Amino acid sequence: VLRLSLSPFRPASTKAGRRYARLIEGDRVVHAELSHDAETLFLATKQARLLHFRVKDVPVLSGAGKGVKGMS
Which of 9, 36, 44, 67 has the fewest CB within 10 Å, making it most exposed? Predict the structure, then answer.
């Protein structure tokens, strides 16, 4: 799970683009969403486990990062 500010993405990108997240082997992006008013977030697994938490509980990354583990 990661949360980031859109301000670093306002200037035009280079040909190589911008890196906003670091994925390690086995990780993948499942869903990305732009939301200004969401207060809570749900994470769900294939094994029918569900985690519900406040968006404010996830820190905002200042640069490219790995985020925090949402569920194991």
Answer: 36
Q: What whole-number distance in Å separates Cα of residue 15 and Cα of residue 30?
A: 25
Q: How far apart are CA 42 and CA 5, in angstroms?
A: 20
Other beta carbons within 10 Å of 43: 14
Which long-range CB contacts under 8 A does 32-39 form with residues at least 24 apart?
34/6
| The pLDDT value given to residue 72 | 64
SS3 content of the chain, % helix, strand, coil (to 5): 10, 20, 70
The mean pLDDT value for 39-65 works out to 83
